[in-house]
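During the reporting period the student researcher (J.K.) took over the structure-prediction task from the postdoctoral fellow and processed the backlog of single-chain submissions. One of the processed entries is reproduced below for the supervisory committee.
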Amino acid sequence: MGCEFKKNAPELISESQLKSTRELYVGAAIAAHENWKIRLSTFLAGKSSEYLRPEIICFDNRCDLGKWLHGSAQEQLGKYSSFQQLVAEHKSFHYHASNVVSLTQSGKKEEAQKLLLNGFQQSSERVIKLLNELS
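J.K. obtained the following C-alpha cells:
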C-alpha cells in the first residue's frame, strides 16, 4: 500500500529557508537598532515630531527584538552565554536610549549627546555584533 499523499499536509521547511528567515529577522532587528541612533539624534536636535517617553523606552521586552529575546528565543537559546550577553546588552541599549531622552527633556543636551555617542553607541554596536553572530 505505501504512503498516501495528503493534499493538506504542511510543507517541510528546509534548513536554507530557516536560515534565510533568521537572517531576515536579524537584518530587521539590526536596522531597527541602527534607526534608534537617528531617532535619538533628531530628538536631541529638537527636530523630531515623535513623542518619546523614557519610562516606556527603558523596557527591553516591548520592542520586537525584546519580545523575541524574552519569548521563544529564550526557550531555544537561553542556555548559551552569547545569547545571555545579547539579552544583557539589549537591556543596556534600552537603558541608554531612555536616559538620552530623559536628559534631553531635562535640558541636559550636552550630557545627552555624550551618552548618545558613548554608552548608547557602544551598546548598540555590541547588540548588532551579537545579532550578527546569531545568523
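The committee noted the following: The mean pLDDT is 84.
J.K. will present the remaining backlog at the next meeting.
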